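Continuing the series of single-chain predictions for the mutant panel. This is the parent chain; the variants come on the following pages.
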Amino acid sequence: MKIVVSLYDETFPGTLDLRVAEKLRAEGIDDPALALLAEPTYQNVMKFIGTYADGVVYAEAGIDPELKTYYKELKIPALDVSQMENHADEIAEFYEKILS
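Parent structure:
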């Protein structure tokens, strides 16, 4: 299984339930990255997801630069389609690269 995260210039206000990390542990997820969810803001949730990602697509302009930096530090392959008009071919190639 491969995971490709698509990020948009949208967030959610506030935080998720503060027990989200506890709930994930109860489901058998025991990962040091759960520490990111001590404060489950949009940014921290996306960082947590990034620890499992095989690729990321930046679908819109305006993605939080901190998230881009975080994903880059994780060395996750990225495709920025935010400035592309017709990006279907580029996305298909990106997914093929991830799957191979």
